Amino acid sequence: MSFDALLILDVLLAALLLMLAIAALHSHSMHQSIILFIVFGLVTALAWARLKAPDVALAEATIGSGVAGALLLAALRDNRSGSAITPSPGRPAWQVLSVTYLVIGLMLTAAWAFLDAHANNSGPRLGGLVQAELANSGVGNPVTAVLLNFRAFDTLLELAVLLAALLGVLLLGPARPAPRPAGPVVTQLVAWLTPLLIVSAGYVLWVGAHAPGGAFQAGALLAAGGIIMRLGGSRYSGLPSGFWMRLIAVGGSGVFLFVGLAAMSGDASLLQYPRDWAGTLILLIEIFATLSIAASLVLVYLGGRPDAWAPDQERGHA
Amino acid sequence: MLETSTLYGLLGIVLASLGLHAVILQTDTLRRVLAINILGVGVFLVFIATAYNGPDAAPDPVPHALVLTGIVVAVAATALALALRRRLESSAEDGDDE
Amino acid sequence: MNEAMALTIALPLFGALAAAAWPGRSSVIGILSVLLSGAAVTWLFTLVMTHGEAYQLLGGWQAGLAIALHADFLAAVMLLLTALVALAISVYATCYFRSPRDAARFWPLWLLLLAALNGLFLSADLFNLYVTLELLGLSAVALTALSGKRAAIRAALRYLLVGLLGSLGYLAGVAILYTGFGTLDMQQVGERIAVDPASEIALILMTGGLLLKTALFPLHFWLPAAHSNAPAPVSAALSALVVKAGFYLVLRLWTEVFAEAISPQGAMLIGLLGCAAIIWGSWQALKAERLKLLAAYSTVAQLGYLFVGLMLLFTTPMGQDYELVLGAIMLMALTHGFAKSSLFLAIGVVQQRAGHDRIAELDGTSQRLPATTFAIALAGTALIGLPPSGAFLGKWHLLSASIDAGQWLLVLVMSIGSLLAAAYVFRVLGHAFGNAAFASRPVNMALQEWPALALGLVATLLLGLGSHWIWAFLEISS
């Protein structure tokens, strides 16, 4: 029986992920926990790549580890003035023990169920249907086809979820104060990185039709550019103010919904794109979705409502 | 030997359990948010492991799309949770406690 | 039919986008969207009544590949409940959120919540349900935190974390189902389900996650704080509609997907938890010092009745009695939806007038706000289950089904529950009557008082007197 090199890689990845997770959850320093979580996200991206899920790997690295990490690090500074995070009081031992036993029990049952399910059904599942209809979807990348054509309604609702989170963040208070203008090194770095990120975002969006990539990854890259600009001292990361800011934020869902409804001519169902136009419509939707996602992620990074969101309403306290 | 799908699926279940354990027992909000994210990654691992069809065949793209959606939803929820926490932390400075 | 289903979800969504983009006009856009989506729901309801249930495969792809929407009688009824209650709440909200700043924050999120509810009731795809659940949860949390008060923010944060845990539990179940059966379509999974470990674990995970979101005892700990600290129109929506969505999903999953995998012990457990919810919720409501807390605990109790009904559904063989119990569950859900929203809107009026909602200091409210006190009385009648409210018939049928099934514990618990409900309702009404002279006009703040009154009338009179239609329609659709 030969040792598969990939198996060694898998075991190492698994062990690394477990150690990072345990360390992140039980570290005494909050700062350390967040850094470990970011690394955890990046190693997870490696795992996705190993499991032949490059689109997911891109998304995990940019959104799950990048943007989420930025949000968490910014949140660290929100603590009550002066205090580092006080060590949380421990739970009584009986609580810890009972929860641990229950969770272990649940884990073992779930593992057994998963093994049983996996053993009984190792067919192609829905993948076969996707392969069969891929040529009719208008794009070549099967994941993009599923996201923006076969299961487009999910993606539309997901954009709405992002909007709901954005609206929630906006209503909770004013944005964090703008950082002071950065020193020359950071300013140069920002000057180099931002255009690079914008171009990369455009590329990832374009190539997503027939290779790994797509609107979400591109949007996250753009958002990363915005976050870097903010760290370099910019106030709104290049976003327009007032009506245009709001329009960009809702534009992705708006265009998506409009196209989906407009496609309902004749006897068609919602989001049934005409076959010849599918590729073009998908690209159109993706462009606006990328802008929306980028704007939303930058705005939630700001942590609250910037004055620019509704300048004519900013009288009175926030 | 252990199949790749099974290995990663079980890893996902263990990670999810770690996250669940921490969500219940930790008291600090930031730690709980981290725990929920790790729980989410665990569930996503089960999906992607199921989608893996071996080194030669193409993977099943549907779970990939589902996990992509899940990642975005998780970040959105994280952002909202952190904003709520920020509001709590800042209002605690103004006097009233707990 | 396709257009009706699509518009039901699309109209509130469009409204939310428009209200977010034009915050100055958000109230007008909001009311317009609610009216239009109400019209779409009515259209869909009449189509379902005349043509029977319908499926729509979004995108035109085949079943399994596409997301399926399913409009049947149950979905149509829940949509109608949502539309009517949402209309009343929206009318009330135009007064409650008078300042442009508050209105701009309320309406986009409120319309997103409506879109999520409509999408949830129509969806027949397991993962699509997850996304609608998340949209519902996030918008509900944001609305709970609207007032900005510390207690509200804390309750909202807890609600968010608990909600995320619930949806991830649900998603974990979906993952195992997909691994075992290879599809996300509810109908297809229902066909392929078998009594094996995968199905059982998926059932436990999904039900557990949904019970967390529906606040069934003992997973209800987050609800009283969240519902009592939210602004009045939001509390009304949370208690009347959002928690119902969780129950609706449990009902759907248990009857359509997992029908063969439910064991009698599982059904008994749910029933027992429902009983505990009835007793605990009613007892806590009796002890509550504040009106909103009383109403929140009352929600915990009333949800218990729904789950008792669910248990009866699984211990009753198919046929006449099954329809009877199903109709009773729907009637209880509808009545509670109207009654609880009426109660919360009325409490909102009282709170704005008196400045507080402490029960012991409500003296004379009935004289100052006669219409609102009447609304509270109507809502209370429906909560207790007195005739002619819909809840009376609902409880009657549940009781008779329990007696038929020999479930004496259920009979005892439901009776005690009604007694306790009577106690806490009369306690409130007793405090509301004082010695001052009556106000000269019955309705003092029209736009604010009418919605509560209208909802209370529907709960107590319309549903009770018109309830035989529910069983008639159930027979037509089956």
Strand content of chain B: under 5%
Poorly predicted residue ranges of chain B? none
Number of helices of chain B: 3
How can the largest sheet of chain C be summarized?
2 strands, antiparallel
Strand line-up across the major sheet of chain C? 1-2
How many domains of chain C, as an integer?
3
Q: What is the element string of chain C, with H for helices and E for strands? A: HHEEHHHHHHHHHHHHHHHHH
Helix content of chain B: over 70%
CATH topology of chain B: Helix Hairpins
Helix content of chain C: over 70%
Which term fits the overall shape of chain C? globular
What CATH first level of chain B would be assigned? Answer: Mainly Alpha
Protein described:
- The complex is a heterotrimer of chains A (318), B (98) and C (478).
- With 318 residues, chain A is mainly α.
- Helices cover 68% and strands 0% of the residues of chain A.
- Chain A has helices at residues 5-26, 30-50, 54-76, 93-120, 127-133, 142-150, 152-171, 184-207, 215-231, 243-262, 278-302.
- Chain A is globular and about 60 Å long.
- The mean pLDDT of chain A is 89.
- Chain B has one domain (4-92): Helix Hairpins, CATH 1.10.287.
- Chain B is built from three helices and no strands.
- Chain C folds into three domains: 1-124; 125-262; 274-478, no CATH class.
- Chain C has a two-stranded antiparallel sheet with strand order 1-2.
- Chain C is mainly alpha-helical.
- Chain C has helices spanning 2-21, 26-51, 73-96, 100-122, 126-144, 150-181, 186-192, 197-214, 223-229, 232-257, 264-287, 291-315, 320-354, 365-368, 370-384, 390-405, 408-432, 446-465, 468-477, and strands spanning 54-57, 68-71.
- Classes of the chains: A mainly alpha (318), B mainly alpha (98), C mainly alpha (478).
